[in-house]
Design brief:
By secondary structure, this protein is mainly α. The chain is built from 8 helices and 6 strands. It has helices spanning 7-14, 18-26, 44-52, 58-88, 111-118, 122-128, 150-160, 173-176, and strands at residues 4-6, 33-36, 39-43, 109-110, 136-138, 145-148. Helix 1 crosses helix 2 (18-26).
């Protein structure tokens, strides 16, 4: 049968204050039962387990340090391996820009031209079109190409201006009229 002791008795046996044990009970670090509303009892097994986890013993620090150093070494080797794999893997080809031989309607610009102007990969912008970058597909017969107006240019800026490869330009109205900031 488990031995249960009061907070005061547990504190006396372990050499800690009663406040320390009360704080552990309130923080749910130490389970306790309450046979009466003003009395708490703690299992000696729980009390000893809790107390053992409070302090790091002198040799334990070195053991933890060795284990952490081994883990860091393993992770560094794994990073090097992943870097080698990345360098050996073929680079994904960019989607080629569509060749459009006609001018867009007045007030519009082809999405591919806008991507080229801002140094953003066409495929990245195409994935956002037409949900996050508003515009419309325009083109002869069955071949329709994405074109964006002033709202689409603003959407383009909002979605992509934080990319590292994004280049601002002096010709865009969305930045010039303070809409971009």
């Amino acid at each position: 049968m488990e031995e249960y002791v009061t907070i005061a008795e547990g504190a006396r046996r372990l050499g800690v204050t009663t406040k320390r044990i009360q704080r552990a009970i309130r923080a749910n670090e130490l389970p306790a039962r309450r046979p009466h509303s003003n009395k708490a009892e703690i299992s000696m097994a729980d009390l000893q387990t809790w107390f053992a986890g409070l302090y790091v013993r002198p040799g334990e620090t070195q053991d933890r340090l060795r284990a952490l150093e081994a883990r860091v070494s393993d992770l560094e080797a794994e990073v090097q391996d992943l870097r080698r794999q990345l360098e050996a893997s073929p680079v994904a080809k960019k989607a080629p820009l569509p060749k459009i031989d006609r001018e867009p309607p007045a007030g519009f610009i082809w999405l591919s031209d806008f991507c080229h102007l801002h140094h953003v990969p066409y495929q990245t912008a195409l994935e956002l079109f037409p949900h996050a970058i508003h515009g419309q597909k325009i083109g002869p017969k069955r071949r329709n190409y994405p074109a964006i107006g002033s709202k689409g240019q603003r959407d383009f800026w909002v979605q992509l201006h934080t990319r590292a490869d994004y280049v601002t330009c002096d010709d865009c109205g969305h930045e010039e009229h303070g809409q971009g900031v």
